[in-house]
Amino acid sequence: MKSILFKVPLFIILFLPPAMAETNELEVEIEKGDELPTGNWEQDYSLKISHLEREFGAYHVTLIAPLNDLAMAYQKSGAVLKAIEMYERALHINKVNLGVHNLSQADLIERLIENYSSLQDWQQVAAKMHYLLWVYRRNFDSSDDRLVAMMERVGRWYRQAYWQHQGGEALSFLVEADDLVDEALAIVELQAGPDANQLVSLLHLSSIINAQIASDVKNVFRQSHRDIREAMIPNNRGTPYANEIAVREYYFEQSFYKGRRALNRVIKIFEKNLPETTVDYAQILVYQGDYYLALNRKWNAMKNYRKAFAVLMDNNASEEEIRFIFGEPRRVKPFTLPGQELSTLTDKSYIDALVDIPANGWPRNIRILASQPNNGGERAKRGKHSVAATRYRPRFENAEPVPTENVSLRYVFRK
User: Fold this and answer.
1) Which of 237, 259, 281 is the last residue of a domain?
2) Closest CA to 36 of 27, 28, 45
3) Coil, strand or helix: which one is 309?
4) Model confidence over 278-333: pLDDT tens digits?
5) From edge to edge, which strands make up the β-sheet containing 364-372?
6) How confident is the model at residue 15 (pLDDT cuts 50, 70, 90)?
7) Rounded Cα–Cα distance for residues 188 and 203 (Å)
8) 341-377, pLDDT tens digit by residue?
């Protein structure tokens, strides 16, 4: 007979019989004729797994390690469906032996999220994200930073998921994200106070989510009256109104002012440390201006832009710092912030263009350079209309908006 050795994780060793737990290596007897072939990793791992099954049974804890290794090998080779099958089996055995809420399964869940994402199976990704958050809630106290980080991460994923869905289902993802961010904010405030720097990232995310909710509930092409009610009411966001116009206005106002309050809090955090935070303070004023502009509050937006320019001038900001904030046009809808842009999950449908951005921020002289997929001009035509309807913050000189020519952009089509 021939023996093979492979490493077993520490958390598995704790559940092995005493005689086996004396070492962190597990020795498996291979009968004559079953020698591992060289260079064939799939057969190699399969032999390890089959011997463990014969020795200990189909649900023994020692199967987790080789199943995980085989899944990783499949993933690296591009066999995503086979990788998922092995990860799912390893996860099931982990839960059977160590309990459904044990934290050691987190890495397996992360791997499954990664693989389901590569397949764009958003239903499975959502299920695994929910489960991962549940595991964290069971293992960490509500004041633990690791739980806050997971809440923020899942909230960001909900925002991504919004773009992969339509109607009330899409809006529901935003509402759930908003609730998670509120919960995370409450924890950080309790730990560090209402004006802590740790709140900035979460407040940014809150403003982005609420800007999108406010935009959607006003958009009859994006959300029907029924979609809005189906997204809001099950998430404890009822309205005293039945009339569609009143309902849309009610939810718009709720989200608009909530997002504005979030940005006001960030402004207050940076304001208290002036002049050291001059650039950050001016920048968040500009971003709040973008928020206003994205939601058709042009007067408020211009007021913020001019105030930010004055702050930079009064505190002797350099030309480079002023150009960094005001030196080029910036797309404001959908509203986002630098570092918090959407990832390119589905950049398979887009147009590249050159445009002129006049002082009013509405693109003009749109020239399509390329489209993907190239379908005989239909994509380019649709893209041209979409770009024309996209609001930009114009470039500023001496606190006044000025036109800019030949601005390159990529417009990504999402659901």
Assistant:
1) 259
2) 45
3) helix
4) 999 999 999 999 999 999 999 999 999 999 999 999 999 999 999 999 999 999 97
5) 364-372, 350-357, 404-412
6) very low
7) 11
8) 555 444 567 888 899 999 999 999 999 888 877 765 7
Confidence of residue 3 (pLDDT cuts 50, 70, 90): very low
Q: Does the structure show a pLDDT above 50 at 124?
A: yes
Strand 364-372 and strand 350-357: pairing?
antiparallel
Q: What CATH number has the domain bearing residue 380? A: 3.30.2420.10
Full DSSP string of 212-277: HHHHHHH-TTT--HHHHHHHHGGGT---S--SHHHHHHHHHHHHHHHHHHHHHHHHHHHHTTTTTT
Domain boundary (71, 103, 130) is at 130
Task: Give the long-range contacts of residues 127-135, CB within 8 A, separation 24 or more.
Answer: 129/154, 129/157, 132/106, 134/101, 135/101, 135/102, 135/103, 135/105, 135/106, 135/109
* Residue found under tokens 């702050």: 311
Residue 71 pLDDT greater than 80, yes or no: yes
Pairing of the two strands 2-7 and 350-357: unpaired
Under the phi-then-psi rule, with left for phi > 0, alpha for psi from -120 to 50, and beta for the rest, what region is 39?
A: left
Residue 338 is predicted with a pLDDT of 59
Asked if residue 240 and residue 165 are part of one domain, the reply reads yes
Whether residue 171 contacts residue 223, with contact meaning beta carbons closer than 8 Å, is answered with yes
pLDDT confidence of residue 339: 54
Please provide the size of the chain in residues. 415
Contact between 364 and 355 under an 8 Å Cβ cutoff? The reply is: yes
β-strand partners of 4:
28
Whole-prediction pTM? 0.81
Closest CA to 2 of 24, 27, 26, 35: 35
Question: Domain of 384?
Answer: 350-412
Query: Tell me, what CATH number does 79's domain have?
Result: 1.25.40.10
Q: In this structure, is the dihedral angle defined by the CA atoms of residues 330, 199, 260 and 255, taken in order, positive or negative?
A: positive
Cα end-to-end distance, the chain, whole Å: 59
Q: What is the mean pLDDT of residues 122-128?
A: 90
**Contact yes or no for 323/279 (Cβ under 8 A):** no
In a domain, 240, yes or no: yes
Instruction: Provide mean pLDDT across the span 396-409.
Output: 92
Q: Give residue for tokens 């890495």.
A: 107
Tokens of 131: 């489960």
CA nearest neighbour of 27 among 39, 16, 38: 16
